[in-house]
Amino acid sequence: GQQLNQSPQSMFIQEGEDVSMNCTSSSIFNTWLWYKQEPGEGPVLLIALYKAGELTSNGRLTAQFGITRKDSFLNISASIPSDVGIYFCAGPPYGGAQKLVFGQGTRLTINP
Amino acid sequence: EAQVTQNPRYLITVTGKKLTVTCSQNMNHEYMSWYRQDPGLGLRQIYYSMNVEVTDKGDVPEGYKVSRKEKRNFPLILESPSPNQTSLYFCASSLTGWAGYTFGSGTRLTVV
Fold this sequence. Notes:
heterodimer, A: 112 residues
């Protein structure tokens, strides 16, 4: 099946730092979703992007839909301890609206 | 409270012993889906359902069965579990398909 590649796989940062991660695909996606998973829980939707070039914020989180439709970016500003978790990008592959493909995830660890 | 409920949360079983993981949602969602999560691989879709009696294979359906006899329930059946099905399983539901999936808290399955 189609794959989404996330980078980096893990990040170790100091509290207060900004965070950037990205997600790329070899094929076009018409929607990009960003989820966060905390230990012992299922993923929770953070941001949804529907148009190429779109920039959407949710508090300290900002995500962008790449203009090539093959990538997306998530930024977290001024990180705090509760930002710890695994961040996943996801999207329905072109022509497969009922399916949802996930990236491998970026594990974020924050040193207080 | 709107939620997706999976049971059990933890299960240890032996190879070949049939098991069912239940999933129920109280949001009147039409779309439901099962994922498995393995380290380094993210979440991979097993099966999905677009409505009652309408199901289709995801990316990793081998060894699994599903049924959708009622809108709220979407059980995952392992007829003859094998050790390679040891994983963390998530059920999810959505009103509109791929966007805004709500996930359950997960079922950690170990097959010995």
